[in-house]
Amino acid sequence: MATKKSKKLTGHDIRAAFVTATQEVSGPFDLKGRGAEARCTFDRRLSAYLRGVDIPHVNISGYGANKHYPRRLVERAATILNESLGRKVIVCYENTFYVDDEV
Question: Domain for residue 60, yes or no?
């Protein structure tokens, strides 16, 4: 019996999902100060894939990840990518998004 092979994840797929999400999710994004909307960070691998893609972010100085992104935008991009591939590829753990697949 032939098994259906799932599509292999590429960096282009990740970048395309984030570009589509930035067009779908309306701004403005309130990422600084008190009362800021939910924000998240990326792990090193995901941020490497997205280097050069224009995603709204805020730089916060201090220990840890310096760039914080609007969570609703990242969740939309993860939904787009996960639905197109048919499995969970981008997952969140403690407000950090990871790529959970071998590329």
Answer: yes
Report the chain's terminal Cα–Cα distance, integer Å.
26
**Residues spanned by the domain of 98:** 43-103
**Is the residue at 7 inside a domain?**
no
Ranges of residues in the chain with a pLDDT under 70 are 1-6, 64, 101-103
List the beta bridge partners of residue 45. none
Rounded distance between C-alpha atoms, residue 42 and residue 44, angstroms: 6
The encoded tokens of residue 38 equal: 């939910």
With respect to residue 32, please indicate whether it lies within any of the assigned structural domains: no
**Cβ–Cβ under 8 Å, residues 74 and 40:** yes
In angstroms, rounded to a whole number, what is the distance separating the alpha carbons of residues 34 and 71?
16
pTM of the model: 0.82
